[in-house]
Prior knowledge:
The complex is a heterodimer of chains A (355) and B (266). Chain A is built from 8 helices and 20 strands. Chain A has 355 residues and is of the alpha+beta class. Chain A folds into 2 domains: 4-223, P-loop containing nucleotide triphosphate hydrolases (Rossmann fold); 236-353, CATH 2.40.50.140. In chain A, β16 (292-301) and β17 (305-312) form a beta hairpin. Chain B is built from 12 helices and no strands. Chain B has one domain: MetI-like fold (Orthogonal Bundle), CATH 1.10.3720.10. Chain B is mostly helical and 266 residues long. Chain A binds chain B through residues 50-52, 72-79, 81-83, 85-89, 98-99, 102-103, 146-147, 150, and chain B through 157, 159-160, 162-170, 173, 177-178, 181-182, 266. The complex binds adenosine-5'-diphosphate (ADP) and magnesium ion (MG).
Amino acid sequence: MALLELKNLTKRFGDVLAVSDFTLSVEQGEFVSLLGPSGCGKTTTLQMIAGFETPTSGAIILNGRNLEDVPARKRGLGIVFQSYALFPHMTVEQNVGFGLEMRGVAPAERAGRVRKVLELVHLDGLANRYPRAMSGGQRQRVAVARALVIEPDLLLLDEPLSNLDAKLREEMQLELRRIQQEAGVTTVLVTHDQSEAMALSDRIAVMQAGELMQVGSPFEIYERPRSSFVSTFLGKTNTLAARLEQVTPEGSLLVCNGVTLKGPPANFLPGPVEVSLRPERVELTDADNAVVSGTVSERVFLGNQWLSKVNTPIGELLMTRRNRGSDEPKPGDTVHLAWSAEHLSILAADRSRLT
Amino acid sequence: MRRNGLAALLFSTLFVVFMIAPLVVVIGVSFTSTGYLEFPPSEPGLRWFRAILTNPDFIDAALLSLELGVTSATIATVLAVPAALAIGREKFPGRDVLQSLFLSPLMVPTVVLGVGFLRFLTLISMNGTLIGLALCHAVVIFPFILRLSLAAIVGLDQSVEKAAVSLGASSLTVFRRITLPLIMPGVCGGWILAFITSFDELTVSIFIINPSTTTLPVKLFNHITQTTDPLVTSVSTAMILFTVCIMLFVNWLYGLDRLLIGEGSR
Lengths: 355, 266
Ligand SMILES: Nc1ncnc2c1ncn2[C@@H]1O[C@H](COP(=O)(O)OP(=O)(O)O)[C@@H](O)[C@H]1O
Ligand SMILES: [Mg+2]
């Protein structure tokens, strides 16, 4: 049985449908991210799990128990807020100990547990500091420690890293993953940052406009997006409008702007579709092996790789290539491009929801 | 920063002079040794400050004003903080109307308030009692505490309270351990501002005091209408000194500019 089950969860604010028929289960010990653009209903979903918003309809089931009549303070969840929400008038020790104090844990045991969790987040020695005398990264750790010390069944994180600068954010991603695994706590993270979701999660749930678009491991979602929204939201991609002409168990044939492309087997009926092709799957080849040929229009050096734009008969294609220290085609050069058929993802042309 | 023009500089200077000049004259005159108002004093001395000590009427009035200020500021605070919590936090119909109503004592001319209070106190036979006086003052100073408490509450990050709830705190515990300590600077600031306002409130008080509840400002006013000796200036100087001391204390505690701008929270 799953630890957390969200069943057809829906939330309306007046005319705004913030979350719509959202169904998801989270297994014990799993790290699941809700990923989507700003305003797609991630925070609302989290607030409903936490008990700060009441669902318009649907059910939240934790450990087999319906949370409908359980108030927020009795749910026993650990929550890390985007603003950290530390108690500014309390020391780190008092902040972290607050949840234990509310549970009536005796001072001696409390001190021991606070010390242990501060060690876990690498904040030992700062127990008597006030939050205002700490850096953003340290406050973040206090917030995580405060949520973890009550040994919650479920840890909820709302954009926990968005207030940190880029370098610290990367460090904290690794830290957060380590802490989550050491504590073994089931975690739901909300983020609009696809790289954060990919780095941290066992599974990602991609949301758009209140709806769940696709759930899967980061690799699955990246490699086999089921809609153009998912494929463009996770990393860069080339999206092409095409017509599916023929489907066989071995593969498919597509026509894009009059050019015939080979594709992977698809479970679609012939008709208009969208095709997604990752820029890193596009390779340079010679004229005989080319799928399409074109002219380089722009080229950007990114250090570890080159990003080029190529004008081809099927449209403008982005191509990334590892920087191997050798020269790359320049703007104006004619290049021949190829990729293998299985690297094309065939997507339904209209927005459809698949779970 | 842009340098101020000559006109602006002149304006500011005149403004400050008009504000300060009366204080300088009052304080100057209070140090005279003559029996009449004289500025600058020809023979400076503390004659009129000693006169205060031999005038028990003034000392009684001062003590009464002190008691009145503390009582009314406290009554108003106890009522204003819950009101500010409701207005600042909850959405309910008539919220804006309620807020305007609570702030209205600032808008109504104090003479009108005074007449109203007199009628009302007479009606409920509390005219001339200290508690009646304190209740009326509480109404007048209520807006000050409400505004500063409201600023503190609105400035408070609500997720801090949510965090406490998620850790298992009941509403009462959240208020006692989180909300109240965090809005305390604003509430205290409001209390002190309210106390000072009550301490030198004249217009409303004139209507509703009787000889046994004469406040210091009323006593001064009555004194001037009968005689013009420098005693009023020495009492005024003592009052100014007292107010300045409170202000310095508040400034040391919270920063005065923040208090007067109305940002109560740290
Ligand atoms: N308390 C509220 N009242 C009205 N609308 C709200 C409220 N909270 C969120 N919304 C709306 O619900 C939608 C989803 O918001 P939110 O869950 O905060 O999105 P996200 O966290 O993904 O950025 C938005 O359109 C937002 O404007
Ligand atoms: Mg959000």
